[in-house]
Amino acid sequence: MNKAQLIGNLTKDVELRNTQSGKIVGGVTLATNKTITDQAGNKNKQATFHNLVIWNKAAEILAQYAHKGSKIYVEGEISNRSYDKPDGTKGYVSEIIVQEFEFLDGKAPDGAEPRETTAAPRTAAAAPKKPVGESEQSGTEEISVKNIPF
User: Fold this and answer.
1) Local confidence band at 105 (pLDDT 50, 70, 90 cut-offs)
2) Which residue ranges make up each domain of the chain?
3) CA dist., res. 119 & res. 5, Å (int)
4) Is the CB of residue 71 less than 8 Å from the CB of residue 40?
């Protein structure tokens, strides 16, 4: 089984782009924190950063309602890939391909309204109940407050 479950805060706003085939893909980094006590008894926070990849309508929804600092729960698959760097060497990256997510903030950051809409979601703690991966979303539906799955 390949499954990751994370709770953390977004380190920036979601960046959306289109693939050559017209699918929408979002990318963002999630920071998870833990507290470590050293031998002297001092408590130190340690952050781990996770690259998230979100596809199609789910990417649009996350970009619309989550912002830098938003607390979210994500569930997905760990993916490792390599790429060619400009200097000719190989680079490697680990990513979480998001299949489900949940907003954990009680309200939008700084009381902000969601982007590109005039109404806020009914609750920020609800989320899609089924996987929202690339194979399940066509990316052709228009996003509006009426068809957001929460």
Assistant:
1) confident
2) 4-34+44-147
3) 30
4) no
Pairing of strands 24-37, 15-18: antiparallel
C-alpha–C-alpha distance, residues 112 and 99, integer Å: 26
Other Cβ atoms less than 10 A from the Cβ of 30: the count is: 23
80-119 core/surface letters (b: 16 or more CB in 10 A; e: else): eeeeeeeeeeeeeeebbbbbbbbbbbeebeeeeebeeeee
pTM for the whole structure: 0.68
Distance CA 112, CA 110 (A): 5
Q: Please name which of 80, 58, 49, 76 lies closest in space to residue 14, comparing C-alpha atoms.
A: 58
What CATH superfamily classification does 4-34+44-147 receive? Nucleic acid-binding proteins (2.40.50.140)
